[in-house]
Amino acid sequence: MTLLTTMMERPLDAGYQEAADRRVAAGLPGATSTRTVLVVVLAILTGFLFAVAAQSLRPKPTAAAAVKKELVTRIEALQKHGTDQEAKVAALGKQVRDYEALALQQSGGTDLTSTIKDLEVQAGAVPLTGPGLTLTLDDAASTDAGADAGSRPSSGFQEGRVTSGDLQIIVNGLWGAGAEAISINGHRLSSTAAIRFAGQAIIVDFRPLSRPYVITALGDSQGMQQLFEPSFAGLYLSQLTDEYKIRSIMAGSDSLTVPGDSAVRLEVAEPVGPPVGSTAPGATTLQQGTTAPKRSAGAGVAPTGTGTSTTRSPSDTPSGTTDSGTGSPASPTSQENPS
Amino acid sequence: MIPVLGLLAGLAVGLFLDPSVPVWLQPYLPIAVIAALDAVFGAIRAILDGIFNDKVFVVSFLSNVVVAAFIVFLGDQLGVGSQLSTGVVVVLGVRIFSNVASIRRHLFKA
């Protein structure tokens, strides 16, 4: 108890009082100045001590956090790089197509421009604008806790989440309802694009998506809506909304744009014989493309090969030779569509 | 006023230099800070009481820090480091509180 009493009632060092008493006895004022060198030095030392302690005791970023930060920076930089390169590819692709058109014109052969244009549209190589529907899907509100846009849980399946299977069924339904071109979150679905999943992330054409998922489908918006809603995919979507509270908004619009698929590349090229040149319609070329034996060589991986090419070989035929091995606009995911 | 400037200068130097504290010293740092705070508040109270003495301040400061660090060191060696740290923090905390209360009475007369 003595200890506690001393501590509580006389917290000041007894030394102060004794020193003051001695000074008073010696005829000096009880207190010394606070401006002595000793005090200032000690004050500086105290400040230094506080600063050092505060800094060194603050929770430090661990090595793992540093690595993570580094990785995030690198991913962001590479994503930006990828986006830039995609834009470059799109610009260069347009340039190439312009040159191709010019070369075709100059070669004086059969005018294939309209055929090429038609096939490019079907292959998804060029951006398209027109009326259509936008269908916005988002995870159920109950999964929002701890999930910012773009983040995903480390493990476990939550039934309120949109899965790649949902997107596949809905996209198939849209194709079935007469969509002419579809993009998800700005990624064009060409005939080789696949909707897949990796962990919890939905991947379209090898690019991960983050929620919300905006599906843009060009076509007759009224007609598509009428066909889509009673179809299997439409019922599936309403089930998702009712059962799992997955949010979906469908809206028609007069002017929507889907970008071209920058990943379209030449897979097969073969000379167009004179009969094809003379019977220009795209359907003929298309059929030739699908029956040509060479196709399997390049397009073995893809269910329906895509490639729009214009190769110019003066020795071959008088005209620039053109072939477009192009699938129907339907993507592989649309092949089992119900309607 | 000059000691306050000195304190700020010390803070600035510490923040600016950001020296790395050796690992063996790190367990004693929080206790040393508490002990230093106790000495500083004691000195402020002594100033207000009119009995400040620079030598007493310096000696009490250094002894506070050293003794606090020593107690923690001893506790670590005996395997009761965290309990002894708590004890030191309680004692010094109580002293700081009563000194601050006294300072408050001096400054605000309340």
From TrEMBL, chain B:
<protein>
    <submittedName>
        <fullName>Small basic family protein</fullName>
    </submittedName>
</protein>
<feature type="transmembrane region" description="Helical">
    <location>
        <begin position="80"/>
        <end position="98"/>
    </location>
</feature>
<dbReference type="InterPro" id="IPR009709">
    <property type="entry name" value="DUF1290"/>
</dbReference>
<dbReference type="Pfam" id="PF06947">
    <property type="entry name" value="DUF1290"/>
</dbReference>
<keyword id="KW-0472">Membrane</keyword>
<feature type="transmembrane region" description="Helical">
    <location>
        <begin position="56"/>
        <end position="74"/>
    </location>
</feature>
<feature type="transmembrane region" description="Helical">
    <location>
        <begin position="27"/>
        <end position="44"/>
    </location>
</feature>
<keyword id="KW-0812">Transmembrane</keyword>
<keyword id="KW-1003">Cell membrane</keyword>
<keyword id="KW-1133">Transmembrane helix</keyword>
<comment type="similarity">
    <text>Belongs to the sbp family.</text>
</comment>
